[in-house]
Structure formats: C-alpha cells, structure tokens
Amino acid sequence: MKVIRVIGVFVLLLLAVSAVAAETALSGTESGVVSSVQLKPESLQRWQQLSPDQQQTLRDRYQQYQQLPTEEKQQLRQNLQRFKTMQPEQQQRIRERFRQWQNLPPERREQLRQTFQRFNELPQEQQQQLRQEMHQLKKLPPNERSQRQHQLQRNYFAPSRGTHKPMRRMSR
Question: What is the tally of structural domains in the chain?
C-alpha cells in the first residue's frame, strides 16, 4: 500500500512540477497562456532550451493544472514542497517508483488505482490493521508471503460489483 501511495503522490507531484514549470516558463511568452507573472531571465533561457515538443507538453500540463479545483492545486503545491524537503535518496526512490508505474500496462495501473481507492474507503482501523499485516508480510518466506498477499487482497479488496466509481485521471 505504501508503494501505491508513494506512486500516487509522485504522479501528483510530477503534475505539480510540470504545472509550476509551465506557469513560470509560459509567462511572457508568445503563447499568451499566462501573462501575470514576470519572467526571470534564467527561466526564459531554460524555456528556450526546451524542444518545441517539450514546450507544448508544459503548455498542456499548465492548462490541465489550471482546470483543477483549488483544493487539488493546493495539494499539489504541498506535495511539491514536501518533495523538495526530502533527502536525495528519497527523491530518487520516488522517481524510480514512478518509472515503474509508467512501465505498467494500463490495465494494471487501473487495477492499482481501484485498490488504492478501496483502501482509502476503508475505515481508519482497517487501514491501520492492513498496514500492520502488510508489514508482517516482509518477514514471511516468499511462498507464504504470496499466499498471504492473495488472502489479504480477497479479504480487503474483493471487487464490489457495480459500486466502483472511476478515479478522475488527467491525460498525458
């Protein structure tokens, strides 16, 4: 569960970084997307060093960011600040987890999103109990660990028929 949470935070974090970078880089450019922020010379230089594809990606991310509700924007900014305060090893671990996430097939990512959503819907006591049980899994031999993981999945995350509400996802 911790891996899924870290991946989720990192995905949001990347979006925040992209959006903030786009906000900074786009201000004062010919795109006209942002005009209220004064562009720093070093930001302009970094923007000009980006390829047209990279610039367009940042413009797109910025527009996606602008469409988010205020609470989500605040959460993204908080995650970005938290990421900036992490040790380089922690940041690298998050980046690696994100690369792993990107390499998963879309079906597996959706399955993990649903599991994460179901976990968040559990009462706090059950969440804590599941965290403890997952921590205990690390102490088991691989074959027992696998069996116990499947058992926990069935107990806590058996698909509920017809009650799944898809998570809102931003396009890449």
Answer: 2
User: Quick check: is 172 in a domain?
Assistant: no
Burial annotation 130-154 (CB, 10 A radius, 16+ → b, else e) = beeeeeeeeeeeeeeeeeeeeeeee
In this structure, the answer to whether residues 86 and 124 fall within a common structural domain is no
Residue identified by tokens 């974090």 is 13
For 27-64, give the DSSP string: TTSTT-S--SSPPPHHHHHHHHHS-HHHHHHHHHHHHH
Return d(Cα 56, Cα 81) in angstroms, integer: 25
**Residue written as tokens 């230089």?**
45
Asked if 47 and 131 sit in the same domain, the reply is no
Contact, 13 vs 94, CB < 8 A?
yes
Domain identity same for 79 and 111: no
Which pLDDT tens digit goes with each residue over 52-105? 998 898 889 889 889 989 999 999 899 989 999 999 999 999 999 989 998 999
